[in-house]
Design a protein that fits this description.
Rossmann fold; single chain; globular; alpha/beta; Elongation Factor Tu (Ef-tu), domain 3; 362 residues; SH3 type barrels; 17 strands; five-stranded parallel sheet; 8 helices
C-alpha cells in the first residue's frame, strides 16, 4: 500500500512513519509548511510546523530511507484555520484551531492531494485507533487520546487514515524512537496554538480584531466595568476579569455569556454556568448509529470528561440537540460536541460523530 506519512517533526509522527515502513508499505514523508513566514521558528518549544520541525522530520525520513517533501499549505491554512479562528472569536465563540486544522488541512486538503497523487492512505501520529469494522475509537492511552480532535472527520476520509501509534502508550513510543536513533525521541510535545507561538492569544486577537470596547455586567444587567473587547473572554473564565466591586455573596464570578454584537460580557456565580441542553450544527458522521434519537456520551473539550446524554439527530437539517443527564459547566459556542458510544470490549469507546456547538440552554 502506498502511504503518505504526515511528518510534524515530533516523536509521534516519527514512530508512525517508522511503523508504516516496518509494516511493508511504500512510504513517503511529507511536512506541511503552514506559516506564511518562511523564516518561522519554534519559540520555546510551544508550537509546531516550524523550520526546526521540518528539519527534524527530514532527519527521520533520512534514517528510514524514505523520500521526504515539504508541501506549502500556508494560504489554505491561513484562510481556513487562522481566519476562521479570528472570525469565531469575533462572534463571541471559543474555537479549537487544532480541531479545525485536522478537519480542513491535515485530512481534507492533505488527503485530497495524496489520493490525487496515487497514495492509498495518510498516516499520522494521532492517538486513536480504527477497529476492524473501520470505526474510530479512543486510544488506550487515555491521557494522550486524540479521538476528540478527529471527531470532525468524515467516514469517507477515515477510510484512508492510518494511526500507527494510536494503540500504544506514549512512554513506549519515546522508547521506540530512541531505539531507531531519532533525535525526536526526547523532543517536548507541542502544546500551544502553532500560529501564536508565544501563547498570548489575547494579544494576537487584539492585533487582528482590534479594540471593541464593551461592558461587563452582572446577571441583573448592572454595569461593572468597561472592557476592550469581548474576544478577551471565554465562557467559564474566572481569572483576569479585574472587577473591583465584589459580588453581593462574596463568591467568585465567572463569565456566563458573551454577546459579541453588543460587546456585553455577562458574569455570575458558578452555578450560572450549568448547561442542560446543547444544540450543535455542522454535523459530521462517523458511525451509522448516529441517527434519530440515541443514548450516548458527549465530550465538549479536548481534554474534558464525558457526560451522558440523549441525542436527537436531525441529519437532513444539519443539527442536533443533546439533553444532558447531568448539567455541564463552561460549555462555549464554537467548541465541538463529539459523541461517543461506550463499548464493553475494552478497545476504546466508538466515535459516532460530532457537531459545532451553536447554542446552549441553562
Amino acid at each position: 500500500m502506498r502511504v503518505l506519512a504526515a511528518m510534524s517533526g515530533g516523536v509521534d509522527s516519527s514512530v508512525a512513519a517508522a511503523r508504516a515502513v516496518a509494516a511493508g508499505h511504500d512510504v513517503v514523508g511529507v511536512h506541511l509548511a503552514l506559516s506564511r513566514d518562511p523564516q518561522a521558528v519554534r519559540e520555546s518549544a510551544r508550537g509546531c510546523c516550524s523550520l526546526e520541525d521540518s528539519a527534524d522530520a527530514r532527519r527521520v525520513c533520512d534514517k528510514l530511507g524514505i523520500p521526504f517533501y515539504v508541501w506549502d499549505f500556508s494560504d489554505r491554512f491561513h484562510e481556513e484555520v487562522i481566519e476562521d479562528f479570528i472570525d469565531s472569536y469575533a462572534r463571541g465563540e471559543t474555537p479549537n484551531p487544532c480541531l479545525r486544522c485536522n478537519e480542513k488541512i491535515k485530512f481534507a486538503a492533505l488527503l485530497e492531494r495524496a489520493l490525487a497523487l496515487g497514495f492509498d492512505a495518510v498516516a499520522t501520529g494521532h492517538y486513536a485507533t480504527v477497529d476492524e469494522d473501520g470505526y474510530l475509537r479512543r486510544s488506550p492511552d487515555e491521557k494522550k487520546d486524540q479521538s476528540y480532535v478527529l471527531g470532525v472527520l468524515s467516514s469517507k476520509e477515515l477510510q484512508h487514515c492510518l494511526f500507527p501509534v494510536g494503540d500504544t502508550p506514549k512512554p513506549q513510543i519515546r522508547e521506540e524512537a530512541a531505539q531507531y536513533g531519532f533525535s525526536t525521541a526526547s523532543k517536548p510535545d507541542s502544546y500551544d496554538i502553532c500560529f501564536i507561538p508565544d501563547g498570548n492569544t489575547q494579544a494576537f486577537l487584539g492585533r487582528t480584531i482590534g479594540l471593541r470596547p464593551g461592558m461587563i455586567v452582572d446577571q441583573q444587567g448592572q454595569e461593572l466595568r468597561q472592557h476592550d473587547g469581548a474576544f478577551q473572554y471565554t465562557i467559564g473564565q474566572r481569572k483576569g476579569l479585574d472587577i473591583k466591586t465584589p459580588a453581593d455573596d462574596g463568591k467568585p464570578r465567572y463569565v456566563t455569556d458573551i454577546d459579541a454584537r453588543t460587546g456585553t460580557v455577562t458574569v455570575g456565580p458558578r452555578e450560572a454556568l450549568a448547561v442542560s441542553r446543547i444544540k450543535a450544527d455542522r454535523l459530521k458522521f462517523l458511525h451509522p448509529k448516529m441517527v434519530g434519537d440515541i443514548d450516548c456520551q458527549v465530550q465538549v473539550r479536548a481534554h474534558g470528561s464525558v457526560a451522558a446524554c440523549r441525542a436527537h439527530i436531525h441529519r437532513s437539517e444539519d443539527w442536533m440537540e443533546l439533553e444532558l443527564q447531568e448539567p455541564l459547566s463552561g460549555v462555549a459556542r464554537g467548541q465541538a460536541a463529539v459523541l461517543y458510544l461506550p463499548m464493553p470490549d475494552g478497545l476504546g469507546d466508538v466515535v459516532l460523530g460530532s457537531g459545532t456547538i451553536c447554542e446552549t440552554t441553562k
